[in-house]
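Aim 2 progress update. The chain analyzed this quarter is reproduced below.
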Amino acid sequence: MTTPDAGTRLAEGIYSYTVDDRPNASEVWRLTRLPDDRLHLQALLRTDQRVIYGMDLVLGADGAAESLEARVESQGEWRGALTFAGGAVQGQVQGPQGATPVQVALPPGTLPFPEAIAMRFLLGRALDLTTEAEQSFSLCRIPVLEAHGQPLVPQVVVARATVLGPETVDLLMAEVPATRVLIEWPDHAPQHGWFDARRFPLQWCWVRHTADGGNAAHQYSLTRYAWHGQMG
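Predicted structure tokens:
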């Protein structure tokens, strides 16, 4: 696997992940330009004691996703190696009970949508932030932190995105202008993402029903954010 140190660091940051305003974990990410002009985005969600997931996404020089490698700790270790090519995502997910082959056809224009919040800049780049009209996207979800289903096995969903307008996001480092977007797809809680001028998510939040009939508010907020170069 290509390591980020093989290229030039473009950006890095840390998201604080809270549940009902209580600290839960941190997603640490970094974006690197490789010597062959591809991009490598690495993200780790970790607590003080362990890494919950790690994801490495490689984009071609044209900005299209080429591959995703991931590992997850969820009732055992799960590892996935996926490639995006020829209108499909294929590869394998290795779990505690064995390997699951992956071969999923993708509708034209499908966007990879991994669990890692930093990687959702792929959706940010595709959004038209100048219109209030509802926008439809085919997303290839790479799930991790869900109660049902197997981690890392891709799911294709049709999502709707509605631009709610400009807002100021109050991060620890500063007040940052952003555009708020509502993202919805079937059988999942509506999500809100705040994208900056580079189309990177500054915040991401949703409310999920709990087993006892209540609700829990989940939120990711950037607490560190630095750019060292141009993504292109």
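The mean pLDDT is 92. The domain at 4-227 is CATH 2.50.20 (outer membrane lipoprotein receptor (LolB), chain A). These observations will guide the mutagenesis experiments scheduled for the next reporting period.
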